[in-house]
Amino acid sequence: MGTDTGTANGNAAGTGTGIDVGKARADTPGCARVAHLNNAGAALPPAPVIEAVAEHFALETTIGGYEAAELRADAVEHFYGAVAGLIGARADEIAYVENATRAWDLAFYAIPFAEGDRILTTTSEYSSNAIAYQQVAAAKGARVEVIPDDANGTLALDALEAELAKGGVRLVSLNHIPTYNGLVNPAAEVGRLCREHGVLYLLDACQSVGHLAVDVAEIGCDMLSGTGRKYLRGPRGTGFLYVRREIARTLEPPFLDLTAAEWRAPDGYEIRDDARRFETWERYVAGQIGLAVAADYASALGVAAIEERVVGLAASLRRMLADRPGVTVLDRGERPSGIVTFTVAGHDAAAVKAAARERDVNVSVAQPRTHGYDPHGLDASVRASVHYYNTEEDLDRLLAALP
After folding, report:
1. pLDDT higher than threshold 70 for residue 3
2. What are phi and psi of 304, to 5 degrees?
3. What is the pLDDT at residue 377?
4. Given the DSSP bridges, would you call strands 339-344 and 327-329 parallel, antiparallel or unpaired?
């Protein structure tokens, strides 16, 4: 492999030509220090995001938190349009939430489950979501049912359609991209089936927003949760929830405050009729401003160009790893993502991660046995997740760091 440093255009053959990688790296201070291949964990933020968060925090320390929020009210409000524009939604369909898990929880626990309701999910479900299913099943008498994989490892659409046809399904809930392998679930096809059968559809998009082109109208989901810290390159401690306008007023959040509802003294209240019924008044204001900047940054680059670059780099990495003796690439699915998982014969994943860290290469450890209903007997693996600011030189550095 070459040593593409991104100093000019930074685009290698097959990795997309729509991103000025040199500029993206110049905007990313962390690129000068590490080969960061842990973007599915937390990506490196660009300078505009860093500056937006730092400037607002500095303003808070100078004039006071409430006063800073009042002074920057336009920047706070801009968040809703920025995120909506990124995913093809309306501004009133977006709520600011402190992380993707809490955003997902707010949507899920707002659904009025009843005895016998069926919840359909996928084999690769994230453990936090699966725990919530079990809690609701025990409390409400609902049933959690897992749709099997197809031959490629993604959710089997024919099996899903057969289960929907049986009736009694309250919710279809799945992840767009699982945390521990490289597949992309067929989100839009699932949405079509859910619409045909009149079933609610909740999509966990924490690994896909900022990674793939995500359009809620095309996907057809009723609710979608996302995070700031991963591929969107926003601040940690930030996230968002999309709730389709027609659905929002049918869902009662598990808790309310004076932002979500208006008190009708002495003993009444009225819940907002838009997605902000899922918000609380107190929040990380600097983070909300920073997340808006991150959404604008991704939109300016173009989500299609981002996806092309990320998927192309991941494909290059899979080829490089497959040519390496003793390395087994584990990714499944017909449509690959920017997440690459693999093992190195004779070395556990944690040791490989530590060896890479010693050479300033960041990867993470995927634990299939702690996520998913059907982990296919997999032990821990190394997870390398690329972003558009990565280069082939970063990939070479990872290969050189492997034992």
Report:
1. no
2. -65, -40
3. 56
4. antiparallel
Cα 346 to Cα 331: distance, rounded to the nearest angstrom: 19
Tell me what percent of the residues of the chain surpass a pLDDT of 70: 94
Helix (H) or strand (E) holding 265: none
Q: pLDDT tens, 159-198?
A: 999 999 999 999 999 999 998 888 999 999 999 999 999 9
The CA distance from 215 to 34, in Å, is 32
Cβ atoms of residues 357 and 364 within 8 Å? no
Interatomic CA distance for residues 276 and 256, integer angstroms: 11
Name the token pair of 355.
Answer: 């060896």
DSSP string of 5-64? --SSS-PPTTS-SSS-HHHHHHT-GGGGT-EE-BTTT-PPPPHHHHHHHHHHHHHHHHH-
Q: State the pLDDT confidence band at 374, using cuts at 50, 70 and 90.
A: low
| Burial annotation 121-133 (CB, 10 A radius, 16+ → b, else e) | bbbbbbeebbebb
pTM (predicted TM-score) = 0.94
**Token pair recorded at residue 297:** 């940054």
Given pLDDT bands bounded at 50, 70 and 90, which one contains residue 7? very low
Q: What's the rounded Cα separation, in Å, for the pair 144 and 169?
A: 10
- C-alpha distances in angstroms, 29 versus 36, 51, 285? 11, 12, 23
d(CA 37, CA 402): 14
